[in-house]
Every structure is written in C-alpha cells, then in structure tokens.
Design a protein that fits this description.
The strands form four sheets. Strands 7, 8, 9, 10, 11, 15, 16, 17 and 18 form a nine-stranded mixed beta sheet that branches. The protein is globular. It has six helices and 18 strands. With about 325 residues, the protein is of the alpha+beta class. The longest helix is centred in the last third of the chain and has 14 residues.
Length: about 325
C-alpha cells in the first residue's frame, strides 16, 4: 500500500522549485527521487496534480506525495576506485572523496562507498547493518571528505561501534569557516536535534535532542576566514556544520547551514570539511592505531589562495 505524505511550505521556501522544495521539506527524499515522483504524477500542489519539476512553491502551499511501496534495496559490487589507507582481516580504513555517498538509499541506489567496498572486499564485510550498509560502522556526509573505517566481520564491528558509543575514537576534522574566530580554542557543548521547520536540517535544540560536544582549535586566521581543527567528542548528524553555524562561523561552501550568495575567491564543491585524523583501538590486537590524510586538492587550493592574499602575494 502506498504512503501519502503532506508537506506545508513556509516563508523560507518561497520561490523554490518543486523538486528543490520536496527534499528540503523531507530529508528522507533526494532531489532525484523527487523528480521521479513528479514525472510519475505522484505529486500534487494544493490538490492539483503537478508534472513540472520547475513549479514554483510559495508559503502556504500544500504539497502531497504518494510514495510507492519500497522496493527491497540490495547493494551490488561496483568497480569504483577507492583510496585504501589501511586494511587487514578485521577492518579497512579508506579516504572517502568529497561527493561520494557512503551507502545506497532511495535516490542513490549505487555508486556509493559500500558498492566499492563490496567489489574490493567481496563477502568479507560485517553483516550487522544488513545488506544496504555492510561493514559500515559510522558515516560522514556526502560532501565531507576523509577517513572512514569499515568492519570486515561482526566481532570487529561490535568493538568499533562500542568505541564510538563510548566516545573513545579519535576523530579530528579540518574546516574552513567564515570570519575571524577570536579565541584560540573553544568547546561547543550544545545539544543537537532535528529542525522543527526543515526535516533536512539539524539545529541546536530542536526535536529529539542529543548531547553534542565539539572541541575547536584555530589553526590559522585569514581575516574573513579561519582555518580550524575540530575534534568530535560525540558524533551527531551534521554536528560540526551545525555547531559552527551556531557560533556564527559557518563552514565555507556549506549549502545547508552557510550564508546564501556569499562569494568566495576560490572554487568550492561543497562544505570545506575534511576528516583528516581517525584513531581507534584495534578490535583484535588491542593496539591503538591512528591514521591521517591531508586535505584534498580543492581544499588546499582554497587555503593557498587565502595564504597568498594574507601575505600580499609573496
């Protein structure tokens, strides 16, 4: 039996295209899946079927979706190149590129890290998270680059998952944020929940709040920008992006929490956020292991531009 969902447009949705409004109002639906629903006649606006994805939405509009019965998803191996930082019989650590989704979901059925891991590892991935997320112990956002660990068996998975729950895993990120942070270091201890007005977003406060702690240290100041190191004590969805926006220093290139239409003197393909350091106790040996990878090329080019401006081109 199909599922009916009703979305109500608010002031912040004014003028959005229909295919942009749907994923903004319901973060379980990707833009690609929204376009498919529209083309299939499964979307109405104020009671009238709408087949144009370009239809403008305004405050007060009611958009109704008729979602088909979910088809069982099963991740398939795909020969997608991945950068392997470490691998043994129990686990694998990879450097995920910006733009890659971690596991399949409606609207992103393939081309994910899981598809690549299945090709590389075969059946040697933990089964705890089922056929869609084999081996996946934790995630990073699509447009966040950097280190991610996956488990090759259930024993390793349980050990790594316990370390995450106990906040003993080292996770250090590098981020480029707007404006000048005055303090050399600070701790943001603010609970994060789902935004009441936008299902796609998280916020400080909100519904279903959970403890969230981020430790921030300034690496370099560039006047209108600050390069920072962020260490996660907890691992909430969008935690660094939400916390930095909360203190009025949103991530450069962040389409969800950053300022609109603020131009930067370099190219960005998403938020400037890189998971550069990952450390944990090995599930079998009990040895603490720590890995690090440099920021990706686009991120480095942005820093180089700012360094050049700071030094007057020298």
């Amino acid at each position: 039996m199909s599922e009916i969902r009703t979305l109500k447009a608010s002031d912040e949705n004014s003028g959005l295209r229909l295919d942009a409004f749907i994923p903004k109002a319901d973060d379980t639906i990707s833009r690609n899946f929204a376009q498919i629903l529209i083309s299939q006649g499964a979307v109405t606006v104020n009671g009238t079927p709408e087949l144009s994805k370009k239809k403008k939405i305004f405050p007060g509009d009611t958009v109704t979706l008729e979602l088909p019965d979910p088809e069982p998803l099963e991740a398939e191996p795909q020969n997608i190149p991945i950068e392997i930082v470490y691998e043994d019989q129990d686990l694998i650590v990879v450097n995920k590129p910006q733009g890659m989704v971690v596991h399949p979901a409606p609207g992103n059925p393939d081309g994910t890290l899981v598809n690549a891991l299945l090709y590389h590892c075969g059946n040697s991935l933990s089964s705890i998270n089922g056929v869609i997320r084999p081996g996946i112990v934790h995630r990073i956002d699509k447009d966040t680059s950097g280190l991610l660990m996956a488990a090759k068996n259930d024993q390793a998975h349980e050990s790594l998952a316990l370390q995450l729950r106990e906040h003993s895993v080292t996770r250090r990120y590098t981020a480029l944020v707007f404006d000048n942070i005055q303090q050399d270091s600070l701790t943001i201890d603010q609970p994060i929940g789902r935004d009441y007005n936008n299902r796609m977003k998280r916020c400080v406060g909100g519904s279903n709040m959970k403890e969230a702690v981020t430790h921030v240290r300034v690496l370099e100041r560039f006047g209108g920008y600050t390069l920072v190191s962020c260490v996660l004590e907890t691992g909430r969805t969008h935690q660094i992006r939400v916390h930095m926006s909360y203190i009025k220093h949103p991530l450069v290139g962040d389409p969800l929490y950053g300022p609109k239409n603020r131009k930067v003197p370099f190219q960005t393909s998403g938020q400037m956020l890189h998971a550069g350091v990952l450390g944990f106790v090995h599930p079998r040996t009990g040895e603490y292991m720590e890995f690090s990878v440099p920021i990706p090329e686009e991120f480095q080019k942005a820093v180089d531009v700012l360094e050049k401006k700071k030094t007057g081109g020298r």
